[in-house]
Design brief:
By secondary structure, the protein is of the alpha/beta class. Helix content is 56%, strand content 9%. The protein has helices spanning 9-12, 25-37, 53-65, 84-96, 118-130, 149-152, 165-179, 185-195, 199-210, 217-224, 229-240, 244-257, 262-273, 282-300, 305-323, and strands at 42-46, 73-77, 106-111, 135-141, 155-159. The protein has a five-stranded parallel beta sheet with strand order 2-3-4-1-5, with helices on both faces. Helix 5 (118-130) links the parallel strand 3 and strand 4. The longest helix has 19 residues, at 282-300. The radius of gyration is 24 Å and the shape is elongated. The two termini are 44 Å apart.
Length: 327
């Protein structure tokens, strides 16, 4: 088993061609049309992190230009190189360079384009007009609303969806088998639940857990710094049963043993409140969700974790006693 992190599995197992991309069939089919016609417009890839946006851009360039596609693709991370100077210099210089022999354009990939300054986006808009004959831009953004309208109107829009459970678990099994990693099937499903459709995060968690030996549910929660859901549920149920002292003792245990911050615990409580394991009336779920939002806001603003979480458990205990709830 290879546990070295000098070559991350995320990069090692990245799809190299459009044919290898899963869960984005409609997008892949549209991109394949561009490859077949050897022509395409400017593109805007949008969607959550880890859903294959950058991978799709590289796969498109690979299918267009072949193995040495990087000669004809300039990749910039707009979160680092987002100033107007970079846009005017690097992009303009590359746009003026020669095109490949059988494809009439080159590709400029701007990752995290939603982090570009407004001035840089205005400069980019003009460059997209000037060099549209010899250059195509692929913009990648988690939040497309941060891209100015003039640029959006110049691009074909592609919205990526979070990956499905079967796709993520299947890929994790493939990687684990190739790397000789022992694993429990439940652990891979746990990784999917934690990743929430983010393939990159799922692979990173798998590799981190594999470094500790066999991948189990326990090792997965250990490497991601999360408490086990059943322990969080036990704390919630104890509070709703009116036992504030017992619930607070469980809270202290979670904070000390797992080293969790107040925000981490609040997010896990929020997730468990809406799970099928917590049997409470719908009206109470609404009240709890509303109060969790208030507590989370206070924590983000800098309030003390212990005081705010104790207040949350105290409120849940009082409500539980008043309504006679048994979580």
């Amino acid at each position: 088993m290879s546990t070295a992190f000098d070559i991350l599995w995320v990069e090692k197992y990245r799809p190299r061609s459009l044919d290898e991309i899963v869960n984005q069939e409609e997008i892949v089919n549209r991109l394949k049309t561009f490859v077949k016609n050897k022509n395409m417009p400017h593109l805007l890839f949008a969607g959550p992190a880890g859903t294959g946006k950058t991978t799709a851009a590289h796969a498109l360039a690979h299918d267009l230009y072949g193995e040495y596609y990087r000669q004809y693709m300039l990749e910039l991370n707009a979160s680092d190189e987002r100033g107007i100077g970079v846009i005017r210099e690097k992009v303009k210089e590359f746009a003026r360079s020669r095109t490949p022999p059988d494809i009439p354009f080159k590709i400029i990939l701007l990752d995290e384009a939603d982090n570009m300054t407004a001035d840089a986006q205005q400069a980019l808009r003009r460059l997209m007009e000037l060099y549209s004959v010899s250059t195509r831009f692929i913009l990648i953004a988690n939040y497309p609303s941060k891209i100015i309208d003039p640029i959006q109107s110049r691009c074909a829009f592609f919205r990526f969806q979070p990956l499905k459970k079967d796709d993520i678990v299947g890929r994790l099994k493939y990687i684990a088998d190739n790397e000789g990693v022992e694993y429990d099937p439940e652990a891979l499903e746990t990784i999917y639940e934690i990743s929430e459709g983010d393939m990159r995060k799922a692979i990173n968690v798998l590799q981190a857990a594999a470094a500790l030996g066999k991948v189990t549910v326990e090792t997965v929660f250990k490497v991601v710094g999360m408490a086990k859901p059943k322990e969080v549920r036990q704390m919630i149920k104890t509070a709703l049963n009116g036992d504030f002292t017992g619930a607070r003792a469980l809270l202290r245990k979670l904070m000390i043993e797992y080293g969790l911050s107040g925000e981490d615990i609040v997010k896990q409580i929020h997730r468990e409140i809406f799970s099928n394991e917590i049997d409470v009336p719908e009206d109470l779920r609404i009240l709890i969700a509303d109060y969790i939002g208030e507590i989370h806001f206070r924590l983000v603003e800098g309030s003390d974790d212990d005081i705010q979480l104790s207040a949350l458990l105290a409120w849940m205990s009082l409500v539980g006693r008043k309504l006679g709830v048994s979580g």
